[in-house]
Design brief:
The chain is α/β, with parallel strands linked by helices. Helix 12 runs parallel beside helix 17. The radius of gyration is 19 Å and the shape is globular. Strands 1-6-5-2-4-3 form a six-stranded mixed β-sheet, with helices on both faces. The protein is built from 17 helices and six strands. It has a single domain, classed as P-loop containing nucleotide triphosphate hydrolases (Rossmann fold, 3-Layer(aba) Sandwich), CATH 3.40.50.
């Protein structure tokens, strides 16, 4: 129904066997972090603002901008603890933080830390079928436990864009929860082609992540003249499909899909659903952050203005099957 927030959980997940060996979300492990929450999604899908708002919850610890700068020092989470207790936690710079003051700690996608413990391939590979080594499992598990303790919280949340890496992360955190933020693939492609990191990093000429695109994906890319928009589109499509395939191998109660457009339409209801999914108590801090800092606006109309009719037809031909399955027409 139009205007009603839709929370889509893959049919494949609902139909999967109930004899999963994965831990149920309501049960903590004998050791290690308790039900860490991972926000996943293709870049430019709206993951940042949803993740930041959720991270304002009183029970959630996270990797901060300080830890990003100094990935050898998890004890820097103490700064976040002090700031949080004194209401000094800031929004990300894109949401209004002043550049003329010492940066407030805020939750961030912290790839220098993940690369330090899991290797560079963690950032630039789909990691399909890959599991963490015993050393990685021990060190990353201890790291998240330490950061959570230093920050004085009960749970941990992180954001990772690009490939979902569910299988790999599940090998470290067998009771983790995954929230997949999804946006209309045509809007994502249009946005990727505009941001500096994508063009400057080679996103116009080669796949951004290794180990994911199939021969059929690359053949489709070549068929449309090696168009940068088609290259971005086939990656969006493959990330969605791979995430669902990986999610189908864990317990259905540990994975959910949420459309960013629905969050923009009914943000308070969306956050309530996320908090319920993560088995957290209602949070006044999340409500306050949503009111004061979150800038949620559906900008999907831009792709129809920025792209030509021919370009939109091409994108519909390339990703229309997956886009339609997500409710985008």
């Amino acid at each position: 129904m139009a205007g009603q927030l839709s929370l889509r959980i893959s049919n494949a997940l609902m139909a999967r066997r109930q004899d999963s060996v994965a831990a149920m979300p309501g049960r903590a492990l004998a050791s290690g972090p308790d039900r860490p929450v991972f926000f996943i999604g293709v870049p430019r899908s709206g993951t940042t603002i949803v993740f930041e708002t959720f991270s304002a919850h009183e029970d959630m610890a996270w990797f901060s901008n300080y830890f990003y700068r100094f990935p050898k020092h998890p004890e820097l989470a103490l700064i976040s603890r002090l700031a949080f207790s004194n209401r000094l936690v800031g929004a990300k710079k894109q949401n209004g933080e002043s550049r003329f003051r010492l940066p407030k700690p805020y939750p961030i996608e912290c790839y220098p830390v993940w690369e330090r413990y899991c290797g560079r391939e963690f950032r630039f590979d789909f990691l399909l079928g890959r599991t963490a080594s015993p050393t990685q499992r021990e060190e990353v598990g201890r790291l998240v436990t330490d950061v959570t303790r230093y920050q004085g919280k009960r749970r941990f949340v992180a954001k990772l864009t690009g490939p979902a890496r569910i299988h790999y992360l599940n090998s470290i955190f067998p009771n983790a929860l995954f929230i997949h933020v999804i946006r209309d693939g045509r809007a994502v492609v249009n946005s990727l082609l505009k941001v500096g990191f994508w063009k400057q990093g080679g996103g116009y000429e080669k796949p951004w992540w290794a180990g994911g695109l199939t021969d059929e994906d690359m053949e489709l890319y070549k068929r449309f003249g090696e168009s940068p928009s088609v290259l971005a589109a086939v990656q969006w499509r493959r990330i969605i499909l791979a995430a669902r395939e990986e999610a189908a191998r864990i317990d259905a109660n540990r994975y959910m899909e949420l459309r960013y457009e629905d969050v923009a339409r009914e943000p308070a209801r969306a956050l309530d659903l996320l908090i319920h999914f993560a088995q957290l108590r209602p949070s006044a801090k999340v409500d306050d952050y949503l009111t004061r800092n979150a800038r949620l606006k559906d900008m999907n109309f831009k792709f129809s203005h920025d792209l030509s009719g021919e370009e939109i037809d091409t994108l519909n031909a390339v990703i229309g099957d997956v886009n339609s399955s997500l409710g985008y027409h």
